[in-house]
# Entry
Amino acid sequence: MTADLLARSVESLVAGMTVYKGFVPKQPTFPYVLLSTNFPTVVERAQSRLVQAQELRVRTTVVGESVQSVRIIGQKLSDSLEGARPVVAGWSLGRVESRPNDQDIIADRDVTLANGLNPVYAVMDWVLTASRTT
# Structure
């Protein structure tokens, strides 16, 4: 249940844009955000070895038909996530923080749209740290 609760807490912050969680349909609506999360990993333990903190990593891929559309949706995504503090009963959650990944906005040469162009995308990474309160 932990993984699902933490993932949904971050997913709920992303609004006002087309979002696909985990997979993209054959005919997506452009521009869109693909949102993927990992299983939370332990990042801190007490001397007794009890888990004190877990980290949820979130990868977002912003996809559009132009660099400009990726930048616009990327900014909306950043406005939604950066510094947001979701709420989950029984948990103390930190703020969502971006993690640099040094990836540029690039064209997907393996996909050709109906207009003959290739979609472009940017990958943005985020992290949320969580501790149980009960």
